[in-house]
Amino acid sequence: MEGVLDRMKYLKETSIFHKKSLTTLNNIEVKLALNDLHEKYVFTPIDKANNNIAIICKKFYISTLIRELGLYDNVLNLNKTYDAIDDIQENIIQGHCTYLSNLKLSVHDTNKYIPNIYWIPKLLLKVL
Questions:
Q1: Where are the domains of the chain?
Q2: How far apart are CA 66 and CA 71, in angstroms?
């Protein structure tokens, strides 16, 4: 079994496909094409599907996040969990730090950021 594993490791390291894919990704035209795709689409993992990704239109991705957070409901005053904030990141963080210092709590520098939020789509397969 050890011989088989050694052979597999050797083939992976010397494989023409592996080397070709690395050189392909370093190609300027490929980089430009990927950049163009990233400007228009979001690449996101698919829930419970290893190594699978979805390519989603940015407008749809953002509208789904807003809908899932219930931010559209603010118009009807139904959403009490989230509010849209129109301020820069530094002011929001400073406000939190000031609030916590009033409570005699400190914030470590590594915690002075706003976490990212993202949507992982759950795709349903329809069996015919």
A1: 1-39, 46-128
A2: 6
* 80 secondary structure, DSSP code: -
Count CB atoms within 10 A of the CB of residue 42. Answer: 19
Those residues with Cβ within 8 angstroms of residue 84's Cβ, 6 or more apart along the chain or in another chain: 71, 74
Whole-angstrom distance, CA of residue 84 vs CA of residue 12: 49
Report DSSP letters for 79-119, one per residue: --S-----S-HHHHHHHHHHHHHHTT----GGG-SPPP---
Distance set, CA 66 to CA 19, 60, 70, 122 (Å): 42, 10, 6, 17
- pLDDT tens across 33-65, in order? 989 999 999 988 887 767 788 889 999 998 888
